[in-house]
Amino acid sequence: MAAGAGGTGAGGPTPAELRAIYLRRWEGRTTFMQGNEAAALGAIYAGCSFYAAYPITPASEMAEFLSKAMPLVGGCFLPMEDEIASISSVIGASWGGAKALTATSGPGFSLMQEAVGYACMTETPCVIADVQRSGPSTGQATKPAQGDVMQARWGTHGDHEALVLSPSSVQECLGLMVECFNLSERYRNPAILLMDGEVAHLRERVRLPMAKDVVLEGRPLGSPDDTPFGGRPVPSMVGFGRGAAVHVTGSTHKEDGMREASTQATHDRLVRRLVSKIASDRDRLERVEERFTDDAEVAVLSFGCAARPSLGAVLRAREGGQRVGYMRLVGIWPFPRRAVARLGERVRRIYVPEMNLGQVSREVERFVDCEVVPLTKIGGVPHTVGEIVRAIKGGDRP
Amino acid sequence: MIDIDTELCKGCGVCIAFCPRHVLEASDRMNKRGSYPPVAARPDDCTRCMTCELLCPDLAIVIVDGEGE
Amino acid sequence: MTGNEGGEGIRRAPSHLRYLREGTLPTTFCPGCGCGTVLNCFVHTLDKMGMEPGELVAVTGIGCSSWLLSPYYRGDTLHTMHGRAIAFATGVKAVMPDKRVVVIAGDGDLAGIGGNHLIHGARRNVGLSVFLVNNQIYGMTGGQVSPTTPAGVRTTTTPYGNAEYPFNIAEVVAAAGADYVARWTTYHVRPLMRAMEEALTTDGFAFVEVLSQCPTNYGRNVGMPTAVEALNAFKERSVPAEKACGMQAAELEGRYVVGTLAKRSRKEYTSVLREASEAARRADAR
Asked: Would you tell me how many other CB atoms lie within 10 Å of the CB of residue C36?
């Protein structure tokens, strides 16, 4: 792992030692934390040693937490001049060997899209936290939303896969941040922690794991002679400083990394591999939480902050005798089509509360034959349990 | 000795124009890319200043034996 | 007649060629392109300094001069997005502080779309060696006006004449705070090499603007269709910085001020970060 600008020179403690020392003040405790803070702490657990960002509501607390924590774990904290510089320096740091993160919200996420594609094309592990707020554009800067679901999948141009996880609790902000790092290292692809302003600013009880119990994955280092951009679905990441003179480019390239944008076969082979290395694992990557689906006649399917009142509504409806099931998407992309399709076979209607005008619901429709009822709500006020209960009881859209 | 890789030359003429001693001239032998590479017409006038070697956009000229300047 | 007639005869392995990836010559640059001369001077400088290819990390953007280190340089290379090389390079330098991180890109890349990252990199004094190859045009895309194209010039996007004033970009970078700033041209190969060496031994942000010819997509528009004519123009229109400071603005119109424009020694950015980190850890330990 890179030494970093944290300044751990020869003779001093290594970044791994510094991280272990730092986490001793947290691990094993149960404490009250904010979602953004938990996500930031999750990055430390994951071994993140580089954070660069531009402040933006409602993500700025992550930067403030890491501005204090990064130096303490021998890592780098860079307040960059804009979001493009932030994600660019993250990618550069990743090639220098660091696990690297940036956090932003919709407007910043939009700016980063070219770089997301660059990270896909160059197979650079990195994590982006998008703390969604009302859009489009400046929108309602301080209010939560879930309108970036499709952007997280297709925001950058060209064919690519996306690894996107969505926390519904402060605890999950921590755990899924670690998971995002693991996924991005495993597949050598950017991973997105799709948060929202609601969960990011919630304060809840969190159980902080023992550092030794947190399973971490690292990029496949291989040997400097390995084929850097081919040969296997996920090639060895022959990073900088290993004497391999590795050539990294966002242009179409051959398996040795050298640019070759003229022939159809080279591009076809490269991009299909980039897509298939993740797509072929999509069934294994499905992450959903299911409750009460065995006897359900209808179901409520949700994710992120909207899953909270959804669960409340399902519980209240069941108290009233209604056979309602509950599904919460934890992994948004690759979309958990099998779990959703199975649900669609069991129930006659799926309600999808989301804080947008129908992004997940449209994806659900693709995989089920039953009726899909989007329960859309925008304007920064989360769904209430009562609204969802009425919608379920009423049998049609509110 | 002025070592010219004639197959790298693209015939820009910079070395010929800027040699302070006018040592180089265009040859009359076309290379594979259709250019007429230079040839040392007055090799004994070469002072090994390396101007041609450093200016060449194709790194086609190397002064061998000694540095110059 | 000496020479390598017909490509046979003397086998050469001059030491400056060891910095180039094998089999990559001849370059894809146009005949007479200044990029080739910059590459030439760069590898000669490395050779003179005795640097190992592995001591450097090369970072480039998009444009003809970004195709200089990528693919020709035989070392770790990050060929990035248009305008963003300095931002990527900042991340590399932060986690690999012992490496020389070199950025070579053009005027459109670094002074146009990348202008913001350029001035912030200089302001922070990030330890990068940046060579801006200024051909005063967007060459790769066919000759559109760039932020350094002189006023009045006809380009493919200014058919009635450029309505803008160009940057004196080296002066902008100097004002932003870089530790070392110089300007030379592809005619001035030896001073350019000395400036490159200075840039490669500066701890902070080192910036060299290199006026360079683009005969194909600029020179042809301004009455200089050959490299020879462009180099003669660089030679005639250059004025040394020491002399320029005594000249009026009108006299400097259309001329290139060459030489060292700034030299200071402030702490390099990533070293400041490291020191602050160490201090934070000591304070935290108490």
From this structure: 30
Are B and A close enough to touch, i.e. 3+ CB pairs under 8 angstroms? Answer: no
Chain center to CA of A5:
26
pLDDT value of position C3 = 39
pLDDT digits (tens, 9 = 90+) for A286-326: 999 999 999 999 999 999 999 999 999 999 999 999 999 99
Is C3 inside any structural domain?
A: no
Residue contact A49–C99, C-beta within 8 A: no
C116 chain-A contacts, CB cut-off 8 A: 81-82, 85
Note the Cα A42 to chain centre separation in Å.
12
Q: Does domain A15-213 fall into CATH 3.40.50.970? A: yes
Scanning every residue of chain C, which has its alpha carbon at the shortest distance from the alpha carbon of A242? C54
Q: C87 and A74 in contact by Cβ < 8 A?
A: no
Asked if the Cβ–Cβ distance from C12 to B6 is below 8 Å, we say no
At the second CATH level, the architecture of B2-63 is 2-Layer Sandwich (3.30)
Option in C90, C99, C116 nearest A241 (CB)? C99
Under-50 pLDDT residues of chain A: 1-5, 7, 398
Nearest to A85 among C87, C276, C278 (CB): C87
Whether residue A163 contacts residue A192, with contact meaning beta carbons closer than 8 Å, is answered with yes
Tell me, yes or no, whether C89 lies in a domain. yes
Tell me the pTM. 0.96
Given a cut of 70, whether residue C257 has pLDDT beyond it is yes
Neighbours of chain C (3+ CB pairs under 8 A): A, B
> Residue C10 — very low, low, confident or very high, per pLDDT cuts 50/70/90?
very low
Q: Binning pLDDT at 50, 70 and 90, where does residue C286 land?
A: confident
Integer Cα distance of A164 and A129 in angstroms: 10
Of the partner residues C80, C270, C276, the one whose CB lies closest to the CB of residue A250? C80
Closest partner residue to C12 among B3, B29, B57, by Cβ?
A: B3
What are the tokens at C32? 């007479």
Model confidence pLDDT, tens digit, residues C68-83: 999 999 999 999 999 9
Distance from CA of A78 to the nearest CA of C (A): 9
- Ranges of CATH 3.40.50.970 domains, chain A: 15-213
Compare all CA atoms of chain B with the CA of C26 and give the residue at the minimum distance: B8
Which pLDDT does position C262 carry in this prediction? 98
Does residue C8 lie within any of the structural domains?
no
Confidence of residue C12 (pLDDT cuts 50, 70, 90): low
Q: Which residues of B touch C229 (CB under 8 A)?
A: none
Q: How high is the ipTM of this complex?
A: 0.96
Q: Which residue of A has its CA nearest to C95?
A: A4
Domain count, chain C: 1
CATH number (domain holding residue C113): 3.40.50.970
Provide the pLDDT for residue C117. Answer: 98
Alpha-carbon gap, residue A76 to C273, rounded angstroms = 8
CATH class of the domain whose range is A290-394: alpha beta
- Which residues, other chains included, contact A290 with Cβ-Cβ below 8 Å and sequence gap of 6+? A325, A326, A327, A328, A339, A343
Token pair, residue A328, equals: 């919460």
- According to DSSP, residue A14 is labeled P
- Give contacts of C87 with chain A, Cβ < 8 Å: 80, 84-85, 88-89, 92
- C90 vs A97: CB contact, 8 Å cut-off? no
With CA atoms as reference, report the closest residue to C192 among C40, C53, C89.
Answer: C40
pLDDT 10s digits, C85-102: 999 999 999 999 999 999
Q: Which two tokens stand for residue C85?
A: 């090389």
- Domain residues for the domain of C268 are 16-285
Confidence at residue B65, expressed as pLDDT on a 0 to 100 scale: 74
